[in-house]
Amino acid sequence: AVIFGGLKLEPIGMPPRQKDSFVRGINLSIKELSVADIDYVSGVFGSNTVRIKLGFDWYQDMKKNKEEAWDRLFSVAARITEKGGLPIIVLDSVEGRILRSDTGLFKSPTLKKEFGSVWGKIASFFKDKGIIAVFDLLNFPNPEALNDWYELAKAAIGGIRTVDRECRIIVQFPSYDRVFEQPLADPGVIY
Predict the structure, then answer these.
(1) For residue 81, what are the CA distances in angstroms to 49, 129, 179, 184?
(2) Using an 8 Å Cβ cutoff, are 68 and 26 in contact?
(3) Taking CA 27 as the corner, what is the angle to CA 82 and CA 122, rounded to the nearest 5 degrees?
(4) pLDDT tens digits for the chain (191 residues)?
(5) Which helix H or strand E contains 36, and what residues bound it?
(6) CB 50 within 8 A of CB 25
(7) Which of 38, 46, 81, 118 maximizes the CB count within 10 A of its CB?
(8) Per-residue three-class SS string for 75-105
(9) Residue 33 to residues 27, 36, 39, 80: CA-CA distances in angstroms?
(10) Which residues does 65 contact at the CB level (< 8 Å), separation at least 6?
């Protein structure tokens, strides 16, 4: 049992992931996430899916190939997998200043290429480690023009597909009333 907020919580275990099983997930930032946290949320809350938010600091460290950024991501993703869970990796625009529309990410050909390259590195990392993950390209995208987000998403999907042809990719819309005119040409995309 764990005492949390004055309440005694009994662990219920992480249900095994099955084709027809339910998803019980939790959303955590890589900044404060540890292997012990994975044990806690799987044991107490029964989480079988953990959405790992990668913010601005992690994004910058990863671009510089800082080992500690990769090691931390690997350790928590591996633990989720060991527990029978599924990691969902998301670049978080709320936390990540570089991911806002005013940085030029949605317009700049250089930043678009970099964004695709970043996702290719992330996909390669997971494939090399043998970890199955879902990639959520950008949390709360906020482009001025929807087609800019469409093109940026295509670049990211291209980066991922150079190393992993089968993983699932989540593409969020800026809002429920701003959707693409046509779907992205990839059967592994979840909207």
Answers:
(1) 9, 11, 33, 29
(2) no
(3) 65
(4) 444 444 444 444 444 444 445 566 777 787 777 888 888 888 877 778 888 888 767 777 777 777 888 888 888 899 988 888 889 998 876 444 445 555 677 888 988 898 899 899 999 999 988 888 999 998 888 888 889 999 999 999 999 999 999 999 999 988 777 788 888 999 999 99
(5) helix 35-44
(6) yes
(7) 38
(8) HHHHHHHHCCCEEEEEEECCCCHHHCHHHCC
(9) 10, 8, 11, 12
(10) none
pTM for the model stands at 0.80
Read off φ and ψ for residue 90, nearest 5 degrees. -135, 135
- Amino acid (one-letter) located at 165: R
**132-170 burial string, b = 16+ CB within 10 Å, else e?**
ebbbbbbbebbbeebebbbbbbbbbbebbbebbeebbbb
